[in-house]
Amino acid sequence: MLYVSWFLLGLALAAPVGPVTIVQISRGLQGGFRAAWLVGVGGMGADLLMMLLVAAGFSRLPDIWWIEPILWAAGGIVLFYLGIDSIRTGRRQLPELSGAETARAGSSLRTGFLLAAANPMNLVFWAGIYGSVLVSIEDRGSAAAAAATACIFLGIIVWDLASAAVIAYSRRFITPRRMQYISISAGLILLGFALAFFWAIFQGFY
């Protein structure tokens, strides 16, 4: 039963909509299942990195005064670039599926990783959630910690696969004109996240 609860925790952790989800939807509607799935895989790679950092004791890293603004700035730059790119894509007439979109699918893995890794709140988030799980089972040894990690990550994988499948299926209902609107809207949302990241830097100094 404990394994099931960890699996459900993984599902719940992957469900909230953030920058990675926005890009996953935009890329998936343009490039299909593979593009959407690879964005999620990139995000999962960053999640795994965060979990390893928490397990290794680096959960307080963002609290260092000069590291936090660097992380916020890096995340803001990545989000700003992707937002502008999504808006530019939306301003063009989009074909149903082209070689260019297939090529974009190849960059989806890197995009998902950068989006998740450049968000300093991810490390804080995993420190609170995953760190609490590790503390609750520390008396059970490393095997229990490994099992908890695997179950949580399995939940994230299942959510990513399901999301990519739903997005890919939805393509048949999306016209090129609607895809343009979706791409531009996704870009504006990403720019909003970028501004929030830059604002966090300002708040940190004042």
TrEMBL record:
| Keyword Lipid biosynthesis recorded | no
Check the record and name the InterPro entries matching this protein. LeuE-type
Q: Which Pfam families match?
A: LysE
Q: How does it sit in the membrane?
A: Multi-pass membrane protein
Q: Which residues cross the membrane?
A: 6-23, 35-58, 64-84, 113-137, 143-169, 181-202
Q: Which controlled-vocabulary keywords does the entry list?
A: Cell membrane, Membrane, Transmembrane, Transmembrane helix
> Source organism's superkingdom?
Bacteria
Keyword Transcription regulation tagged: no
GO cellular component terms listed in the entry, alphabetical order: plasma membrane
Location in the cell reads: Cell membrane
Q: Which GO terms describe its molecular function?
A: amino acid transmembrane transporter activity
**What's the protein called, per UniProt?**
Lysine transporter LysE
Which source organism?
Answer: Alkalicoccus urumqiensis
